[in-house]
Specification:
- The complex is a heterodimer of chains A (152) and B (91).
- Chain A is mainly alpha-helical.
- Chain A has five helices and three strands, in the order ββαααβαα.
- In chain A, helix 1 runs antiparallel to helix 3.
- With 91 residues, chain B is an alpha+beta fold.
- Chain B has a single domain (18-89), classed as Ribosomal protein L7/L12, C-terminal domain/Adaptor protein ClpS (Ribosomal Protein L30, Chain: A, 2-Layer Sandwich).
- Chain B is built from three helices and three strands; from the N terminus they run E-H-H-E-H-E.
- Chain B has a three-stranded antiparallel sheet.
- In chain B, helix 1 (30-41) crosses helix 2.
- The longest helix of chain B has 14 residues, at 45-58.
- The radius of gyration of chain B is 20 Å and the shape is rod-shaped.
- Chain B starts with 17 loop residues before the first strand and ends with a strand.
- Classes of the chains: A mainly alpha (152), B alpha+beta (91).
- At the A-B interface, helix 2, helix 3, helix 4 and helix 5 of A face helix 1, helix 3 and strand 3 of B.
Chain lengths: 152, 91
């Protein structure tokens, strides 16, 4: 798999084999896999704030909608792509870059929550954990390219 | 018949400012945190980077102080960018 910026200011992912497609299809799966209430987690330090009930009632639903949209935009981009597992391309438009970044962040957060990679050596991990670690590293790489070449 | 004398007293004091606090987490990239602070508050890169480093090293940083309503707006923006955030009264 190759990832690089496009002349239009977006990002192109060159998918070379069935395994690449599988990794890409894991993004929404991983993002939803942790069962994490991200909006609630992000506002956890506000738990003792006098306005926390209003925050939960009025702000958190909007945040959750935004986080769901991030995952849905990735699903939409991948829908129908690579059904034949042949080499292909996935384009991330400049205007969708933040949504992709957020969706990838959710996927990494869920993997970190589930596996707690810390500084563990991948060669000592179980196969399942090592596979998750590699996915997390790939998501991190795409995020870095998005941040450095598309969002800035 | 008695007269009632009504006295009105006004007590004015300055409102205590509120701090917007960002916390460290294991996932967000340092460059991303800097980028978010620049985007939301319009900070120059060196100031945003200094706040990001404080988050990274001390676990938290006060990124803005001011009136409550605006602090809430900023906190919501930061949380929408997946940064763990709280509000606290300035001491």
């Amino acid at each position: 798999m190759k990832v690089g910026p496009t002349l239009q200011g977006g990002l192109r992912i060159d998918v070379e084999n069935p395994l690449d497609w599988m990794v890409l299809r894991c993004i929404p799966y991983d993002a939803r896999g942790g069962g994490i209430d991200l909006a609630d987690r992000l506002s956890a330090p506000m738990a003792k704030d006098e306005g926390i009930d209003d925050w939960r009632e009025f702000v958190l639903p909007d945040l959750q909608d935004g986080f769901n949209t991030q995952v849905e935009i990735i699903e939409k981009a991948l829908a129908g792509s690579g059904d034949d597992d042949e080499p292909g391309q996935v384009f991330i438009m400049k205007e969708d870059a933040e949504l992709w970044y957020g969706g990838l962040n959710q996927a990494r957060l869920a993997l970190e929550e589930r596996y707690g990679f810390s500084d563990e050596d991948p060669s000592t991990m179980t196969p399942g954990k090592r596979s998750a670690w590699f996915r997390s590293q790939f998501y991190l790489h795409v995020q870095s390219v998005l941040l450095d070449h598309v969002m800035r | 018949m008695s007269d009632t004398l009504t006295e009105l007293k006004e007590d004015v004091s300055l409102d205590v400012p509120w701090n917007v606090v960002v916390y460290d987490d294991p996932v967000n990239l340092m460059g991303y945190v800097t980028w978010v602070l620049m985007k939301i508050f319009g900070y120059p890169e060196n100031r945003a980077a200094a706040m990001m480093l404080e988050v990274h090293k001390r676990g938290r940083s006060i990124v803005w102080s001011g009136e409550r309503e605006k602090a809430e707006f900023y906190a919501e923006q930061l949380q929408a960018h997946q940064l763990k955030t709280s509000l606290e009264k300035a001491e």
